[in-house]
């Protein structure tokens, strides 16, 4: 079975802190994605990557950056966390040009 | 991106079939129709997808209208574990992005 793991289920940070959210997949997938999910807004794509060291902006990249140094790992970085980044963050991966995305369990981030 | 329209919520009884509708009147000829579901406190999971023909798998069936402007996800016998938000998504043939809408909250009554 494909497994996508995220470093934390729950995280509490303070405004202005640098935050790293880690995602690892074990199926050698080319594509990896970061979403955030908020009530009433659904899932929104922040960034995605289709290869190592490659990244593309999604619909809401402002305030975020990403890093993909190895194929299996995709990191989401909040350079200076703000309260409006309090959200559920979901990572996903997929095989190149295949529709099925496999999601991790999510990280619920609270920024105080 | 072509959009989909789904009812906000639906209810079903356990062990009865459930038909979840989705309208996508602006679908293009190369868009695939994907369905995902999200159980409480979990990430979304893939259910099924199709292009023109009806599709079946172990989880569900997908019925696609002949003009492709609508589709229906069919759960043949709903269980309590099927209570989730179901998302109908159009995906372009090329590219890997999915755009999630609000989905349909399915409640299954015992």
Shape of chain B: globular
| CA(first)-CA(last) distance of chain B | 38 Å
> Order of helices and strands of chain B, N to C?
EEEEEEEEE
Our count of helices of chain B gives 0
**In total, how many beta strands of chain B?**
9
Q: Radius of gyration of chain A, rounded? A: 13 Å
> Mean of the pLDDT scores of chain A?
93
Q: Which structural class do you get from the secondary structure elements of chain A?
A: mainly beta
The percent of residues in helical segments of chain B reads: under 10%
- Run of helices and strands of chain A: EEEEEEEEEEE
- Strand percentage of chain B lies at over 45%
Mean pLDDT of chain B: 92
Uncertain parts of chain B: none
Per DSSP, what share of the residues of chain A sits in E-state strands of 2 or more residues?
Answer: over 45%
Number of helices of chain A: 0
Coarse morphology of chain A: globular
Summarize this structure briefly.
The complex is a heterodimer of chains A (112) and B (110). Chain A has 112 residues and is mainly beta.
Describe this structure in words.
The complex is a heterodimer of chains A (112) and B (110). By secondary structure, chain A is an all-beta fold. Chain A contains no helices and 11 strands. In chain A, the strands form 2 sheets. In chain A, strands 2, 4, 5, 6, 9, 10 and 11 form a 7-stranded mixed β-sheet that branches. A 4-stranded antiparallel β-sheet of chain A has the order 1-3-8-7, with no helix packed on it. With 110 residues, chain B is mostly beta strands. Chain B contains no helices and 9 strands. In chain B, the strands form 2 sheets. In chain B, strands 1-9-8-3-4 form a 5-stranded mixed β-sheet, with no helix packed on it. A 4-stranded antiparallel β-sheet of chain B has the order 2-7-6-5, with no helix packed on it. In chain B, strand 6 (61-64) and strand 7 (70-75) form a beta hairpin. The termini of chain B are far apart. The model of chain B has no long low-confidence stretch (mean pLDDT 92). The A-B interface holds A 4, 31, 33, 35, 40, 42-45, 48, 50, 58-59, 90, 92, 94, 96-106 and B 32, 34, 36, 41-46, 49, 91, 94-103.
């Amino acid at each position: 079975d494909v497994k996508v793991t995220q470093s934390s289920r729950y995280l509490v940070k303070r405004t202005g802190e640098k935050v790293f959210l880690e995602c690892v997949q074990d199926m050698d997938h080319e594509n990896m994605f970061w979403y955030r999910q908020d009530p009433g807004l659904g899932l929104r794509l922040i960034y995605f990557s289709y290869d190592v060291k490659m990244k593309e902006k999604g619909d809401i990249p402002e305030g975020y950056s990403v890093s993909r140094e190895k194929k299996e790992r995709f990191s989401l970085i909040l350079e200076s966390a703000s309260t409006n980044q309090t959200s559920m963050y979901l990572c996903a991966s997929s095989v190149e040009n295949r529709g099925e995305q496999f999601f991790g369990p999510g990280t619920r981030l609270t920024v105080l | 991106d072509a959009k989909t329209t789904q009812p906000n919520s639906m209810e079903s009884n356990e062990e009865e079939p459930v038909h979840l509708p989705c309208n996508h009147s602006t679908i293009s000829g190369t868009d695939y129709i994907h369905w995902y579901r999200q159980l409480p406190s979990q990430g979304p999971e893939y259910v099924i997808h199709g292009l023109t023909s009806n599709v079946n798998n172990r989880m569900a069936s997908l019925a696609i209208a002949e003009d492709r402007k609508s589709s229906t996800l069919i759960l043949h016998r709903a269980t309590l574990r099927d209570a989730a938000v179901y998302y109908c998504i159009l995906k372009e043939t090329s590219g890997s992005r999915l755009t999630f809408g609000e989905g349909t909250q399915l409640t299954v009554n015992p």
